[in-house]
Amino acid sequence: MWTNTPEGAGGGPVLPDGCMDLLWSEGRLLVAGPDTRPYVPEGAPRFWAGVRFFPGTAPALLGVPAHELRDLRVELADLWPASRVRRLRDRVEAAPDPATALEDIALERAERTTAPDPLLHRLVERLGEGRPVAATAAGLGIGTRALHRRCLGAFGYGPKTLARILRLQRALALARAGTPYAETAVRAGYADQPHLAREVRALAGMPLGQLLAGG
C-alpha cells in the first residue's frame, strides 16, 4: 500500500519496476500497467492511494494480460463491469483510509482468483539476483520461447526487458545507499559504469545523478 501527494505540478517520474498498481485519486479507480519508460504524471498535484502488486501477479487478479496495459493508465471500469466498479468506488470513498480499502479489495479478489503461476515468482527472484535469462529459463525447465510468451501475459514484456528493469532497481537501491557509481555498476550486473549510465538514461529518462537528486 502507498499514498502520495506530489509536490509541484505533476510530481516526479514513476520509474519502471516490473509492477502494476491499483490506484485511487479524486473519485477514480485506475490501473497502472507495466512501464517500460518513465511515467510523468500530468496536471496539478493531487492525493493518490495505491496497491502495488508483486511483478507478474496483477494480471491474474484483473483478468487482463499485462501486455494490453503496457505503458498505460486505464480506468478500472474499462476492464470490469461499470456497476461493480461503482460499488468499489463508493466503498473506497467511504473508507477512512483509501489505501487500506484498496488492499482489502485486492485481497478479496485474490481469494476468488486462481493463484499466479509460481514459476513466474521464481523467475522474478532469480532475475532479481542478476542471473542470465537463458540460464534462468534452463533452471526453471522452460524453453526461451515459451518463457517469452508467458512473460508477455504476466509482465507486459519479455524476460530480457524484465531483467533490465530489475537490474535498474538493484542499481538505484545501491546508489541511493551511497555506493559509488563504479561499484554500483559492478554489483548490479552492468559491464561497467558507462553501461550503467546508458541503461539509466534509457529506462529512467535522465542521468543517474539527476535522478538521485530528485529529478
Task: Outline the secondary-structure elements.
Layout: E1 2-4, E2 20-25, E3 28-32, E4 48-53, H1 58-62, E5 73-75, H2 82-94, H3 98-111, H4 118-128, H5 133-140, H6 144-155, H7 159-176, H8 181-188, H9 193-204, H10 208-212
Antiparallel strand pairs: 1-4, 2-3, 2-4, 3-5
Short description, anyone?
With 215 residues, the chain is an alpha+beta fold.
Please give a structural write-up:
Residues 117-214 form the HTH araC/xylS-type domain. One of its GO terms (molecular function) is sequence-specific DNA binding. This protein has a five-stranded antiparallel sheet with strand order 1-4-2-3-5. A hairpin with a 2-residue loop joins strand 2 (20-25) and strand 3 (28-32). The radius of gyration is 18 Å and the shape is globular. The protein has two domains: 2-111, no CATH class; 118-212, Arc Repressor Mutant, subunit A (Orthogonal Bundle), CATH 1.10.10.60. By secondary structure, the protein is of the alpha+beta class. It has ten helices and five strands, in the order E-E-E-E-H-E-H-H-H-H-H-H-H-H-H. The protein has helices spanning 58-62, 82-94, 98-111, 118-128, 133-140, 144-155, 159-176, 181-188, 193-204, 208-212, and strands spanning 2-4, 20-25, 28-32, 48-53, 73-75. Helix 2 (82-94) packs across helix 3 (98-111), helix 7 (159-176) runs antiparallel to helix 8 (181-188) and helix 7 (159-176) crosses helix 9.
Which structural traits does this protein have?
10 helices; 5-stranded antiparallel sheet; globular; alpha+beta; 215 residues; 2 domains; Arc Repressor Mutant, subunit A; 49% helix
